[in-house]
């Protein structure tokens, strides 16, 4: 016990010394960077050079060390990669050296990191291609379409200051000179450079349809704040929507301080927009006129809170290990980052979710606003699919006036066009309903009433509920709750509309089957009539053949060479009449129902009489009293008599029982 206490004391001292060292180091770094920036700026002004474009995103940052309530009131800046302020101020060789240093870090990260299955699928064309990693420039250095899909990418990045207003990170100059991929790289690689610009306490990063190399860049810049491996798995896995916000008892500290929402549903492929290799999508090159190309889309919204935990919570679970018996809650007012990765190949992502006119109280509010925008985007995509399916199954107005069109809709063709269409529409609407239900369930599971009130034990608890900012935060969360409830109600109404459309599709399919069945019945009746006619023809041919059969027999007999050579025509006639007349009578009677019944009864009685005669028992077929006795009955009586004699001692038991 004494050793344990000593170890804990030493660890506390070590933590305190480490925090003091980090804070001192951060301050020294800020002072040096400011001096360098001032020197560089003075040099440029003295030389009369035009002011070089400042970095849209500052780089130096202050690491969070405060843990008291007073320290938490001060907005702190999020931690990320550091950059040289001199390179940002001059834009000369130091800038190139700075970029090359980052490229080296990215190459080493892509080569040496132990990627899991989800990351490998996303980064397949990068990590499995050593030649690609040895190129001088990892990102396309020219504007326009690129082979790595970077021309599909989109981005929106905001720095949020102490006033809560999001300021867009402008990298249009970089994009115009190099490429979109390079601009995204410059926007996400650093934050909070010590300069005259304001310090950011929050960062909102929205990235759409990234190329594989940009996914690697996101992993490098974000993996200290987020479990990026987990985020990539959510993108790759074709599962239902899910929430991962109640993770205070996770063993990974990044998961304890991060809150993740994964949305999985469907959208219609945009024109000239191809899905990624790991996305489930309709990849038909040639599509029919009524074909609807659908792809599965995915999005991840994550919030990371920096700093130390503010509350230690006991795990109420019964089956927990010692390492997870306690969890931690994080301060909702801590510096924060919101990361939104969108994989929607449809060109329909909203760009008005975050605007400079908004004001965010803290990171949870920015996270909820981003999530609300994703739910609205999902509803728009669901509505689009619903309209397209409705158009697919609904006939045009010419249906009322064009008989050929009605016949085409009522009776199936040889390619089963409408059966295929109705089957696809019915099943697709059912799958979409399941996707909508999973989104609703994820929301209901993640945000109980205590979250909106700030009284939840682990999810964004308010340690100072009576403070003005806490009251203001609750009011804004109440407004967000109403908006979420409205979107959830719209999704539930969409489920009802899809179910009604499915019922209509089922009715159309049943009517199609009924019409096709009637048509097949008519065809069957026609085939039956043809078969009956063929039967009459065969019957006629058979009668003609039968008529000539006895005549052929008689002429064959009288045509033999061993017959008398004398001409006896009367004998030929008598034989012909004797053979043909009974034959014709028999065949004629058998050809009628009455005659067939007559001969059947006669042949049946004859057969029964032969069976009775063949089963008579005894020598004369009588049992002594004039009654017929069968052989089986006689054998049974004989066995019985012999057993009775043996029982009275007049006979011995036979060595072998007779067979029955």
UniProtKB/TrEMBL annotation:
Source domain of life: Eukaryota
Transmembrane segments: 540-561, 567-590
Biased composition (Polar residues): 76-88
Signal peptide: none
Coiled-coil region(s): 477-511
Positions with biased composition (Basic and acidic residues): 601-610
A cellular component annotation (GO) from this entry: plasma membrane
InterPro entries hit by this protein: CorA_TM1_TM2, MgTranspt_CorA/ZnTranspt_ZntB
Keyword Nucleotide-binding belongs to the record: no
Subcellular location field: Cell membrane
Segments of this protein annotated with the region Disordered: 39-97, 601-660
Keywords annotated in UniProt: Coiled coil, Membrane, Transmembrane, Transmembrane helix
Membrane topology: Multi-pass membrane protein
UniProt GO molecular function: cobalt ion binding; cobalt ion transmembrane transporter activity; magnesium ion binding; magnesium ion transmembrane transporter activity
Protein name: Cora-domain-containing protein
């Amino acid at each position: 016990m004494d050793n344990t206490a000593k170890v804990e004391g030493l660890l506390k001292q070590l933590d305190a010394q480490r925090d003091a060292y980090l804070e001192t180091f951060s301050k020294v770094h800020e002072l040096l960077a400011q001096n360098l920036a001032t020197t560089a700026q003075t040099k440029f002004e003295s030389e009369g050079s035009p002011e070089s474009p400042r970095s849209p995103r500052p780089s130096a940052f202050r690491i969070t060390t405060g843990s008291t309530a007073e320290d938490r009131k001060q907005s702190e800046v999020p931690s990320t990669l550091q950059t040289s302020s001199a390179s940002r101020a001059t834009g000369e060789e130091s800038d190139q050296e700075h970029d090359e240093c980052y490229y080296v870090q990215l190459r080493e990260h892509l080569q040496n990191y132990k990627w899991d299955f989800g990351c490998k699928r996303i980064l397949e064309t990068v990590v499995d291609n050593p030649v690609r990693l040895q190129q001088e420039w990892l990102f396309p250095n020219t504007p326009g379409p690129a082979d790595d899909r970077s021309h599909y990418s989109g981005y929106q990045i905001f720095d949020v200051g102490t006033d809560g207003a999001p300021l867009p990170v402008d990298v249009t100059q970089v994009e115009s000179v190099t490429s979109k991929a390079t601009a995204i790289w410059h926007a996400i690689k650093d934050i909070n450079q010590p300069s005259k610009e304001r310090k950011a306490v929050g960062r909102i990063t929205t990235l759409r349809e990234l190329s594989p190399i940009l996914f690697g860049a996101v992993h490098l810049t974000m993996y200290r704040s987020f479990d990026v491996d987990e985020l990539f798995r959510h993108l790759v896995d074709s599962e239902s929507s899910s929430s991962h916000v109640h993770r205070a008892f996770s063993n990974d500290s990044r998961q304890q301080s991060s809150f993740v929402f994964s949305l999985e549903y469907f959208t219609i492929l945009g024109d000239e927009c191809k899905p990624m290799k790991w996305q489930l999508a309709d990849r038909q090159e040639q599509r029919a006129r009524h074909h609807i190309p659908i792809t599965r889309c995915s999005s991840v919204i994550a919030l990371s809170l920096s700093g130390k935990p503010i509350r230690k919570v006991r795990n109420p679970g019964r089956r927990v290990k010692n390492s997870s018996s306690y969890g931690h809650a994080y301060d909702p007012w801590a510096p924060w980052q919101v990361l939104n990765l969108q994989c929607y190949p449809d060109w329909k992502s909203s760009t008005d979710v975050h605007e400079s006119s908004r004001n965010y109280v803290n990171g949870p509010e920015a996270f909820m606003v981003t999530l609300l925008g994703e739910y609205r985007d999902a509803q728009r995509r669901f509505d689009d699919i619903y309209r397209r399916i409705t158009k697919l199954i609904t006939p045009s107005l010419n249906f009322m006036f064009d008989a050929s069109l009605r016949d085409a809709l009522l009776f199936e063709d040889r390619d089963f066009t409408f059966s295929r269409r109705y089957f696809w529409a019915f099943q697709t609407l059912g799958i979409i309903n399941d996707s909508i239900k999973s989104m609703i369930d994820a929301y209901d599971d993640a945000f109980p009433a205590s979250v909106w009130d700030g009284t939840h034990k682990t999810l964004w608890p308010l340690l100072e509920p009576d403070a003005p900012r806490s009251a203001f935060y609750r009011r804004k969360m109440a407004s967000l709750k109403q908006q979420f409830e409205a979107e959830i109600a719209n999704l539930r109404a969409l489920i009802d509309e899809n179910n009604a459309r499915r019922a209509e599709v089922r009715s159309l399919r049943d009517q199609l089957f009924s019409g096709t069945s009637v048509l097949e019945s008519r065809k069957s009746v026609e085939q039956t009539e043809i078969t009956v006619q063929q039967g009459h023809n065969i019957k006629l041919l058979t009668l003609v053949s039968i008529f000539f059969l006895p005549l052929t027999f008689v002429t064959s007999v009288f045509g033999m060479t061993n017959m008398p050579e004398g001409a006896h025509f009367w004998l030929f006639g008598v034989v012909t009449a004797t053979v043909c007349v009974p034959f014709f009578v028999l065949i004629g009677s058998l050809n009628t129902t009455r005659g067939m019944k007559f001969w059947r009864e006669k042949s049946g009685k004859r057969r029964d009489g032969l069976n009775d005669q063949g089963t008579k028992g005894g020598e004369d077929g009588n049992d002594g009293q004039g009654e017929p006795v069968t052989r089986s009955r006689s054998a049974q009586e004989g066995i019985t008599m012999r057993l009775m004699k043996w029982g009275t001692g007049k006979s011995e038991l036979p060595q072998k029982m007779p067979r029955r």
